[in-house]
DNA sequence: TGATTGACGTTAT
DNA sequence: AATAACGCCAATC
């Protein structure tokens, strides 16, 4: 109990993640950058880590800039993320490799992404 | 109160 | 191309 005033950081990240269209992918740096924090990709991961299990946020659509699930599947929830990404209709390998080049989210959500 | 770690990224070697 | 080190800030020990 210390965060009486929730920092916009967390809110911004969650809002952006919630804005990711279905079947689209975003990177931690991308989220952090759009949130207004170009140098805090790690904190983004921290926020996602603190998410509840029943969250509706598509945190599984958030990957690192290389286009694969954090830690290459060594993380305890990576497999969950992979499973969810597959449920989205995306192509994901067992290691969490996905086609970021194809599913890269520009942050326009429904406009002329390109 | 201080030190270490971390769902990462970028730059340098 | 791959590997190393640095940066950033919050949470945890």
What does this 3D model show about the protein?
The chain is mainly alpha-helical. The chain has one domain (9-50, 62-103): Arc Repressor Mutant, subunit A (Orthogonal Bundle), CATH 1.10.10. It is 39% helix and 4% strand. The protein is built from five helices and two strands. The protein has helices at residues 8-19, 28-35, 41-49, 78-88, 100-103; strands at residues 26-27, 62-63. A two-stranded parallel sheet has the order 1-2. The longest helix is centred in the N-terminal third of the chain and has 12 residues, at 8-19. It is globular, with a radius of gyration of 14 Å. The mean pLDDT is 85.
Which characteristics define this entry?
114 residues, mainly alpha, Arc Repressor Mutant, subunit A, two-stranded parallel sheet, 5 helices, 2 strands, 39% helix, globular, DNA-binding
């Amino acid at each position: 109990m210390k965060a009486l005033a929730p920092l916009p950081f967390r809110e911004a990240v969650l809002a952006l993640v919630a804005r990711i269209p279905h079947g689209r992918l975003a990177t931690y740096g991308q989220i952090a950058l759009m949130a207004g924090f170009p140098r805090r990709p790690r904190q983004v991961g921290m926020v996602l880590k603190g998410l509840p299990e029943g969250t509706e946020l598509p945190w599984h659509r958030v990957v690192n800039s290389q286009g694969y699930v954090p830690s290459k599947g060594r993380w305890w929830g990576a497999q969950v993320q992979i499973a969810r990404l597959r449920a989205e209709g995306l192509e994901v390998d067992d290691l969490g490799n996905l086609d970021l080049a194809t599913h890269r989210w520009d942050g326009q959500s429904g406009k002329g992404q390109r």
